[in-house]
Amino acid sequence: MSGAPATDVIGWDLTVDELRTVREHLPGLVLPSFVPSGAPEQQSTEALVERGVLTRRPDADAESWSDDLDAPFLLTLALQNAGSIVIQVSAWDRESTSAHSTVIERNAASHLTVRSARGGSDSGAHLRGSVLDQAWSALVELIPSLDVGDPVRGTTTVSTVASQALVDAIQRGDARVIDAVVAELHVPAEAVGLFRGLAEPVQYGFRVKAFTADRGPVFVADWFGTRRGWLRMSVGLDAEARGSEVTPELITDAGTVTVTAQTDQEIRTDLLGLVAGLIRDRDV
User: Fold this and answer.
1) Lesser CB count within 10 Å: N end or C end of the chain?
2) Domain co-membership, 95 together with 119
């Protein structure tokens, strides 16, 4: 078992197959969908004992390991199945992808991360238990680090039709076509610089979704990492179409795409506001 210096954070490292094996020996436990389903090949329990996940080797025919698992580990893992607030993160860069779930209940938080190397050659899981104050820190650690060479600033909103036309024009690299799209589709001039990032290969991403037990989905945000920095993209409807039944035709005719350039610090601030807001609403 590997804990942080402070007693308010404790963590364990496992292979994904070891995590699946633990799940198979805790009947009724449901983990996030990013943990592969099904039972893995039989795993040795020696490593789990050495790392403090198990306090002793279970009987070979034991269906449940609840009496053999380290109590803090068991409570932290079980919280993934029982929290009032759930925040899930998908993050990726050139080397790996990460899937993460932070679950909050009262003053405790459980953080489960599965990291996989590109190509699927290697993967691992990390479970962390923390006090409530550490929930934000677990999320911001997942933001990929960018090498920004040509930063862009600002925000813009264009129609879905204009956004696709603008990306296509930028990828063609013909300034006359870009100018024509801007003029014909009434695209704000500042949109060109922002959409250049999305027209280039995007090798970094960061997606956050939040749910509560009483309200269901309450938040979703997508950031794409480019050499121009982080670009937050969201899709909506223009003012006249809001409240209408959402159909593919409506999205084409009245959909909008908003792109906002943000720094790492601004994303961290957004996440802090998200966590604080969810906790405040829960405690009202």
Assistant:
1) C
2) yes
d(CA 81, CA 172) in angstroms, rounded, equals 49
3-state secondary structure of 77: helix
Phi/psi region, residue 216 (left: phi>0; alpha: psi -120 to 50; beta: rest), is left
Print the domain residue range for 228: 155-205+222-263
- Burial annotation 21-35 (CB, 10 A radius, 16+ → b, else e): bbbebbeebebeebb
- For residue range 111-129, what is the model confidence (pLDDT) as tens digits? 999 999 987 667 899 999 9
Question: Model confidence over 20-35: pLDDT tens digits?
Answer: 999 999 999 999 999 9
Supply 95's token pair: 């080397």
The tally of domains found in the chain comes to 2
Look at residue 249 in the predicted model and tell me its pLDDT. Answer: 78
Looking at the structure, tell me whether residues 163 and 124 fall in a common domain: no
Asked if the structure places residue 178 within a domain, the reply is yes
Residues 94 and 187 grouped into a single domain: no
What's the Cα-to-Cα distance from 267 to each of 91, 144, 176, rounded to whole Å? Answer: 13, 11, 35
Q: Is residue 78 part of a domain?
A: yes
Cross-strand pairs, 233: 222, 259
Q: Indicate whether 168 and 81 sit together in one domain.
A: no
Residues 108 and 128: their CA atoms lie apart, in Å, by: 11
Residue 170 has pLDDT above 50, yes or no: yes
